[in-house]
Write a sequence for this structure.
């Protein structure tokens, strides 16, 4: 080779060839025609992404440990919840107007301990097996609740009978194609009435790693993220279903967790493993609710006055706006 010429390829001289990149920048898994090969390459790509993410996380943790007290504060990830659009009706716990409304609303007798919750649980006409089992399991979660079947009676005829027998709340489980898909909750005798869409229903036998059957102890109640005036009303409706004094010896907790206007219900038993560690077992059932409407007074589909109705086209314009 003449003076100034580069190394001859393959003669062992010069720098080593760079390692072959597993996924070139222009690579796209979707271009692979073979389905099995495409799936295999996608799994490898996901595995590589996971390894890179863990390595970066480990590197950052070591840097924070090296800096000690001088480490910058952890960055808060952006989520839909913490970027929520501010709602004017958000409740301030120290607001006198809110306190006055709570002292005079339909739930005041319950919160003043003047009434004891007594719940009637019923279904739509001719319920199927899954809905019947769900009602029976719901009755084991809510103390002092009784399951009766409709037998073709209209709700307008059922409500006066409930009031005459000192029931404080009426729960109606509706179904479609043998699956529970709706819940009507009416506070007696003066309302209000809430209509929910129900989804993701799981009975006890369908829950993995479930605990033993629940006991008859009165559970504790946890209400999370009901921050607006509407959410406050819904939270008070759920609270009024349970007696005031939970029996802590039973270690049972009923949770209504509101997230992005979806209300997730879970029923757990907790177990103290040590002074600092607590284990939980899900007892079931579980379901998810989405508020459709809130109506003044008891159930009246024709002439009822609605406080709030969910209108998708008008209200769901932003993913960061929530109503509860």
């Amino acid at each position: 080779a003449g003076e100034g010429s580069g190394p001859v390829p393959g003669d062992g001289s010069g720098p080593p060839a760079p390692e072959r990149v597993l996924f070139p920048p222009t690579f796209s898994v979707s271009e692979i025609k073979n389905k099995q090969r495409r799936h295999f390459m996608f799994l490898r790509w996901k595995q590589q992404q996971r390894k890179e993410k863990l390595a970066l996380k480990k590197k950052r943790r070591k840097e924070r440990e090296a800096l000690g007290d001088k480490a910058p504060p952890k960055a808060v990830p952006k989520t839909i919840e913490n970027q929520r659009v501010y709602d004017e009706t958000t409740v301030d716990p120290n607001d006198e107007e809110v306190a006055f409304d709570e002292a005079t609303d339909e739930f005041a007798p319950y919160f003043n301990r003047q009434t004891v919750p007594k719940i009637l649980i019923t279904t739509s006409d001719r319920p199927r097996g899954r809905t019947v089992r769900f009602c029976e399991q719901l009755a084991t979660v809510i103390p002092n609740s009784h399951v009766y079947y409709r037998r073709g009676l209209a709700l307008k005829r059922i409500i006066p009978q409930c009031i005459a027998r000192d029931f404080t709340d009426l729960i109606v489980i509706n179904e479609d194609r043998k699956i529970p898909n709706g819940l009507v909750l009416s506070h007696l005798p003066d309302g209000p009435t809430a209509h929910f869409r129900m989804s993701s229903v799981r009975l006890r036998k369908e829950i993995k790693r479930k605990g033993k059957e629940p006991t008859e102890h009165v559970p504790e109640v946890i209400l999370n993220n009901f921050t607006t005036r509407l959410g406050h009303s819904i939270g008070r409706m759920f609270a009024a279903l349970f007696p005031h004094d939970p029996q802590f010896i039973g270690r049972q907790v009923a949770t209504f967790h509101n997230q992005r206007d979806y209300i997730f219900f879970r029923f757990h038993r907790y177990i103290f493993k040590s002074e600092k560690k607590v284990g939980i077992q899900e007892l079931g059932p579980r379901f998810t609710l989405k508020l459709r409407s809130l109506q003044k007074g008891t159930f009246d589909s024709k002439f009822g006055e609605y406080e709030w109705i969910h209108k998708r086209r008008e209200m769901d314009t932003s993913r960061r706006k929530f109503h509860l």
Q: What stands out?
A: The first strand starts at residue 119 and ends at 123. Residues 29-69 form one domain.
